[in-house]
Amino acid sequence: MKRADELRFNEDGLIPAIVQDAASKEVLTLAYMNRESYEKTIETKETWFYSRSRQELWHKGGTSGNTQAVKGIRYDCDQDALIVLVEPSGPACHTGSYSCFSPEKAEAADRFSILNELESVIAKRQAEMPEGAYTTYLFREGIDKILKKVGEEASEVIIAAKNRDHEELKWEAADLLYHLLVLLREQALPLDEVLEVLKKRHSESD
């Protein structure tokens, strides 16, 4: 990560920081950092920002517990804007929403595959833990329950394939993919990293 003196802060001593879920790639919020909050973010590996209204530093989740573990920082070509990749432990927005941006953002879904969309929904469920949601249930039950479901769904896929039941197979395969994405989220492993392995294998086989 770059040192603060390598960045270009504006005339107010601030730099915009776009916060993005490292796994789902969904944009969570736009905030600002000054030199001190940037350095504290690097030091603590959690997001710190500068409040323009209160004119003071603030630690995201310092009061609510909804901290954001920093997984990486990307810098634009002019070094005057940041993308902060995080693993959120709760909602990013003060309203209690997973993201500060409107859910209408889904209108831009043509940029993402259905797997990326589903990964984003799973990440939102983990952050907000809405009552009655099946994904919430899985995360509350923990890794053993998630692993059990992955195993069960894999078995169902095998049975459907063995029986040459294509209708059943497509439903069971969809269930398996969903539970596998839940497992990846629980392990904080972005789907993109798995896809990169496939891409690398494909390029090596050419």
UniProtKB/TrEMBL annotation:
Keywords: Amino-acid biosynthesis, ATP-binding, Cytoplasm, Histidine biosynthesis, Hydrolase, Multifunctional enzyme, Nucleotide-binding
Subcellular location: Cytoplasm
EC number: 3.5.4.19, 3.6.1.31
CDD domains per the UniProt record, alphabetical: NTP-PPase_HisIE_like
Segments for region (Phosphoribosyl-ATP pyrophosphohydrolase): 115-206
Domain of life: Bacteria
Amino-acid biosynthesis found in the keyword field: yes
Tagged with keyword Repeat: no
Reaction catalysis annotation: 1-(5-phospho-beta-D-ribosyl)-5'-AMP + H2O = 1-(5-phospho-beta-D-ribosyl)-5-[(5-phospho-beta-D-ribosylamino)methylideneamino]imidazole-4-carboxamide; 1-(5-phospho-beta-D-ribosyl)-ATP + H2O = 1-(5-phospho-beta-D-ribosyl)-5'-AMP + diphosphate + H(+)
Entry GO MF terms: ATP binding; phosphoribosyl-AMP cyclohydrolase activity; phosphoribosyl-ATP diphosphatase activity
Gene3D superfamilies: MazG-like, Phosphoribosyl-AMP cyclohydrolase
Pathway: Amino-acid biosynthesis; L-histidine biosynthesis; L-histidine from 5-phospho-alpha-D-ribose 1-diphosphate: step 2/9; Amino-acid biosynthesis; L-histidine biosynthesis; L-histidine from 5-phospho-alpha-D-ribose 1-diphosphate: step 3/9
Annotated spans, Phosphoribosyl-AMP cyclohydrolase: 1-114
One CC-aspect GO term: cytoplasm
Top EC class, one word: hydrolase
BP-aspect Gene Ontology terms: L-histidine biosynthetic process
PANTHER family, per database record: HISTIDINE BIOSYNTHESIS BIFUNCTIONAL PROTEIN, HISTIDINE BIOSYNTHESIS BIFUNCTIONAL PROTEIN HISIE
Family: In the C-terminal section; belongs to the PRA-PH family.
Protein name stated in the entry: Histidine biosynthesis bifunctional protein HisIE
Lineage of the organism: Bacteria, Bacillati, Bacillota, Bacilli, Bacillales
